[in-house]
Amino acid sequence: MTQNTHRLVFQPSGRQGRVAEGTTLLDAARQLGVDIDSICGGRQTCGKCKVIIESGQFPKYSIASSLDHITPMGEDEARYFAKHPSSLTNHQSSFVHYRLSCAACITGDVLVTVPPESARHRQVVRKDARDRLITIDPILRQMFVEVEPNTLGGRKGDWERLQEALSHEWGLEGLRIDIHALRQLTPALRAGKPAAPTGNPRVTVVVWDEREVVDVRPGFRDAMYGLAVDVGSTTIAAHLCDLHTGAVLATESVMNPQITFGEDLMSRVSYVMMHAEGLGKLHAVVIGALNELATRAVRRAGVNMDDVYEAVLVGNTVMHHILLGLDPTELGAAPFTLATHAPVDVKARDLGLRIHPAANVHLLALQAGHVGADNVGVLIAEAPDQQDEMMLVIDVGTNAEILLGNREGIWSCSSPTGPAFEGAQITHGQRAAPGAIERVRIDRATGRPRFKVIGNDLWSDEQPPERIKATGICGSGIIEAVAELFMAGILRPDGRFSEELGIGSGESATSTHSPRAAPGLRFNGRKAEYVLATADQTAFGREIVITQDDVRNIQLAKAALYAGCKLLMRRRGVERVDRVVLAGAFGSYIDPLHAMVLGMFPDCDLGRVVAVGNAAGDGARIALLNKARRAESAQAARRVNYIETAIDPSFQEEFVNAMHLPNRVDLFPHLRAIGVLPDEQNEPNEDARARRRRERRARNAAPSSQVASSEAQTSTL
Amino acid sequence: MTQNTHRLVFQPSGRQGRVAEGTTLLDAARQLGVDIDSICGGRQTCGKCKVIIESGQFPKYSIASSLDHITPMGEDEARYFAKHPSSLTNHQSSFVHYRLSCAACITGDVLVTVPPESARHRQVVRKDARDRLITIDPILRQMFVEVEPNTLGGRKGDWERLQEALSHEWGLEGLRIDIHALRQLTPALRAGKPAAPTGNPRVTVVVWDEREVVDVRPGFRDAMYGLAVDVGSTTIAAHLCDLHTGAVLATESVMNPQITFGEDLMSRVSYVMMHAEGLGKLHAVVIGALNELATRAVRRAGVNMDDVYEAVLVGNTVMHHILLGLDPTELGAAPFTLATHAPVDVKARDLGLRIHPAANVHLLALQAGHVGADNVGVLIAEAPDQQDEMMLVIDVGTNAEILLGNREGIWSCSSPTGPAFEGAQITHGQRAAPGAIERVRIDRATGRPRFKVIGNDLWSDEQPPERIKATGICGSGIIEAVAELFMAGILRPDGRFSEELGIGSGESATSTHSPRAAPGLRFNGRKAEYVLATADQTAFGREIVITQDDVRNIQLAKAALYAGCKLLMRRRGVERVDRVVLAGAFGSYIDPLHAMVLGMFPDCDLGRVVAVGNAAGDGARIALLNKARRAESAQAARRVNYIETAIDPSFQEEFVNAMHLPNRVDLFPHLRAIGVLPDEQNEPNEDARARRRRERRARNAAPSSQVASSEAQTSTL
To answer: Which pLDDT score is estimated for A689?
Structure first.
């Protein structure tokens, strides 16, 4: 007797075939290679496998599907839907006919739709604004299993019988078990015994990497969360994610408490070198901060800390080492040796991280002494190695980490920008905090500034000065200020204040020294400075100025960044890039136009310069949610061609060439096209510009000694 | 041009062959398959590879060996021997010519002797008294390696370069590294840099199971120790072993502090069941005891705790579970389910054991709910599965674990002897401690006892009574007492005191009630008892007696033990055994003759009944020193045919049959041959014995009511 078979089509994949009568839809899906989720192993408990039975004629598939072609709903299944009515309303149509695919058996031809939430490898949109998907396939899986009870004279331990169940129901072999999970096992089996005297104990197991059981709990559970954390030198940001749906349930951030041991990385490395207990202290405070973040995140999301089974951490190399308790001393000096460049998995308890004690903490690979796991996070988040277009990815911090390339190869380097972009080494520089000037505009006709401070929605000229209370200039503010000064012609291409526009000390800022004198620019002995905020606009009753030194420091920083980009382009053999990606919080705050006018990175269509925010944190989230991409990231990190700027002779050359504000206007066709450069910059003829400058200088009666000294001062840079 | 080769012979193996001129002796040994040790990888540092160059004619090998056939000693080698003069005096002859085989190169034919201490797989004698060898091949290896330094622009981490060195020098691939070792790595490389500016850093690495690096230290080191611990319910004993030589450097023992939570295992399981924090407390106190033992052992041996890299623990199933923090509740009731029966490796730090933090702690496999890792220790120590003779191995404790078999198969069971053999449930029973009666002799003619107490070298009749200060009877004392009472005819085969020999209460013990009356035996109302120590011989001024109930309890215990042995013999299909091995401390104290007279185990040639002491601890030491035998033990544990006495109907039958003192004299031909059984026992004719008993009874005027009641009482047992 041949068995009856029926035709079965799964949407949206379109996979189809004939399966035997009486087969469950879940088994049929597996036979046809359709990917349906399940935690409970077909016990009509988890609801992850629910599908929609379609009714009607489907000529495209030559199938007539009917609800009658499926066995009717039994008690258990009806009980599931009664307990979970919300699971019926996920779809827009109220007429869709949901069934649990593990319960419904085939009695005729059927067309079945697998809703997105039932696909085992669901996808989530990574960023609302951009079309990036993460396929949910974390390194952890949760499995509901039924364990055979022991019998008198039987000699198999609980763990051995659990292994048999996991092998039988889930095909897992050669598992090991964490000691904490082993401790939970016996009580879980006792508590997981159903009321019926004949039932076998049922437990939910969490398996890491198909290798290690990290948790065993009685009965059915589907809570499984993970933390993706970007450990920055300044800020630590954590996302708590649902490992089933990929949803971010809570995002928390905190200042990195290591700051009290040193603002920048090198001072923290010094602290470790100078203090016997230094490493232990720095390690303890950052772990303390992670515990605080985790506590806040689970509280906000209303979940249990014990259900947080994994954490993925990214950070620069120094943060990475300190997190693991590794001596970072060698990172402070050439040859910048890493303790390890490989990805690391370590038990949360071995770090003192108080999530589930058997949880693993994963640290992404490192690229080189200066290019850390955060940049590997950027690499997997932005995936330039999977694009055709030539992409330049810049993550600006104290060092800028730069990636350049496409699927044919990736080059990377770290460029020593210094902390100027973060507001350090700037006379009135400060961190991005309320009161900091973050936006600056300078009128090209009058030279007058206006600005915006963080925490105040109005521009400075839209409100009474005493309401502004500016406290300083943050990174984005100083970049805009320097770029605007340049565009207004107040700064010359070599970075010096245009002495023909300035006024001497003691003269009123509003008095005009020449027909085109800039109101805020003044020369005070050797010092040239531009008044950005007047005394009545600041919180401390004194002016906020931008000095010639400030400009020089920004020039040095931008030249380092630009030189790094150019070095990579030279190595890669390309003249221009198709896309510039600004990663990191800093990248989100700076205006691409101003950054390009300043010459922070090579010319590009401004519409293709994008800020992606915390790409490193995104990379951590991807590694948390998708094990394949996590594994790829370690390989990708090794494939990157790293260039050590410190020993590359062409870096120094590029650096010197990049000191000028947009140094060669022919290199910036896009800027030139939109006409934002000052007039003289739009003339490529250097001789003509020099001539005009000499003429102006003769026209204006600037004190020659001051000019000379100003020139002498800046030429030493 | 063909290369010159020379003839080379290695003693004592006799391996020989031709090798190229200029080859080091170490390389030549490897080419010829001769096993020479080395830690330093041929750097003339460790001295493990030293050999003896023989000089003269060796016709057996057709070789003329000369000291001139070896390159002369260089500076480094001379420095080694200057620093280690003692290494030259290990051999008896003072004329032997030692060389480091990694330094000496061949220039002609040579005969080389490899001294035992230079063999990589050396052997140590396990017990002085018996010819048992352990081949030293622990799961840990110590390796001295030279690591390439990092270069500027090089991107390999310290760990990756160490892996390259371990692969290149030692052929190890696919290693992982413990987080603690990773933390030590960078400082070790820094400190391991030689003074010479060109030298590469050198470190000593400890590798576990060719899989995991657990330690990295600067420079050359050869300190590597391990702990083998037998965790008994009463006593914990630890051996600190040198993992290079196998030597036991220190042995320490301590009372198991869990005793305060319950004397026997089941009361400790109950404590866990009744108290929420019970498991945690029992776990903490036993770990505390292990830490104390480890501290005492390293102090006594003068070594560092940080050089203790491994611990092997054995114990019964309840001890095993509590050590690991596993819930032992299920072991307290049928079906006696284990959390796991597999061997367990767990990090010392995860148990709170304060040896090297990356050390692994290994627990041997378990056989069944009642047969623990201690019995697996016994199994690998006594190795009945590798013998031809039929061996019975008995480990007596509260439960007796019994192994029976030979290389054709091993059967095992656990027999519920109860605590009587440990002195519990005995009127004046006590643990084996100073003051306890441990030896008893009863004169067969007079019925008078004499005895010895622990801590006193004289017998009771060799000293004034007031010097004796007996405090009670320990396990071996009660066994000897009952056996002696039986041999003196004072106890009848059914275990009742022979009423025709006793006296009534109030009569003097020295008055004779019948021609053969035993001086210490009296009947007091319902109670029959034998006075072992008079009031003036005890520490507390009252008699120490053996009551009818005491005898009954010993009978129950010995019947359980005997029944277990017989059950295994029945299953194995053998009538007699070739050898009886008494394991455990208890086995060392009891006299085999008395134990056999009591009928604790089946008849055997008394010359082939041996006490082996702490075989479980020996097994732990073997597993510590030899990785192959450790691995075999887990398989052997599974291969054992375990019989659950609780559900085996023939066990009950055997048990009832075994209640009599040597129950059927025909089963004890060896005892009969040496004539130790009382006269009536040497007559197999039951009818004749019964007749004689009736005659005696009639002859003596024992109060008939008392006899009747005594019979009624005992028949309920």
So the answer is: 53
